From TrEMBL:
It comes from Kribbella antibiotica. Residues 104-155 form the RNA polymerase sigma factor 70 region 4 type domain. Coiled coil: none annotated. The keyword DNA-binding applies. PANTHER family: ECF RNA POLYMERASE SIGMA FACTOR SIGM, RNA POLYMERASE ECF-TYPE SIGMA FACTO. Belongs to the sigma-70 factor family. ECF subfamily. This is SigE family RNA polymerase sigma factor. Residues 18-78 form the RNA polymerase sigma-70 region domain. InterPro entries: RNA_pol_sigma-70-like (IPR039425), RNA_pol_sigma-70_dom (IPR014284), RNA_pol_sigma-E_actinobac (IPR014325), RNA_pol_sigma70_r2 (IPR007627), RNA_pol_sigma70_r4_t2 (IPR013249), RNA_pol_sigma_r2 (IPR013325), RNA_pol_sigma_r3/r4-like (IPR013324), WH-like_DNA-bd_sf (IPR036388). One of its GO terms (molecular function) is sigma factor activity. Pfam families: Sigma70_r2, Sigma70_r4_2.
Length: 170
């Protein structure tokens, strides 16, 4: 039992930053992302003995995080206004996009997407997962992933173009 717990602790230490970033990108709020990851890690701990650690436990954990993020957005008591700012008392996880001007544009544009489109875009293009992997995580067909990702990218392009047009001096 101790070895299994130790494996879980090591997995969480190695994967939590990645899971937290994914949760943030799917739900758009650092505080909610923390809650989502915590809920997902609790569920993962309960099923840890059944998780195939020889396979890909990160894929299982990522699916749990995405499902928890999508579920949390459906709850009626979740009506807070999301914030893209990382609280000052939190440790930065070395997000490679920090410092790039486009980061804020992309995060703002991501917030305009429907939850499933946002999840598809994040998993396909940020997490660099295949269509098959994304479909497996979201529990949908590959065709749904393709159409949701295409629509999401179109919406992102439109939102970013509008942001850039508004920001330019006349």
């Amino acid at each position: 039992m101790v070895d299994r717990d130790q494996e879980y602790v090591e997995f969480v230490a190695a994967a939590s930053a990645s899971l937290r970033r994914t949760a943030f990108l799917v739900c758009g709020d650092w505080h909610r992302a923390d809650d989502v990851v915590q809920d997902a890690l609790c569920k993962l701990y309960r099923s840890w003995p059944k998780v195939d650690r020889g396979g890909n436990p990160l894929a299982y954990a990522r699916r749990t995080v995405v499902n928890a993020a999508l579920d949390s957005g459906r709850r009626p008591w979740r009506r807070e206004v999301p914030t893209a700012e990382l609280p000052a008392d939190r440790v930065s996880y070395g997000d490679p996009a920090v410092g790039h001007a486009e980061r804020d544009e992309v995060l703002t544009a991501l917030a305009t997407l429907a939850p499933r489109q946002r999840a598809c875009v994040v998993l396909r293009y940020y997490e660099d997962l295949s269509i098959e992997q994304t479909a497996q995580i979201l529990g949908c067909s590959e065709g749904t992933v393709k159409s949701q990702a295409a629509r999401g990218l179109d919406t992102l392009r439109t939102a970013i173009d509008q942001t850039r047009r508004i920001g330019r001096p006349a």
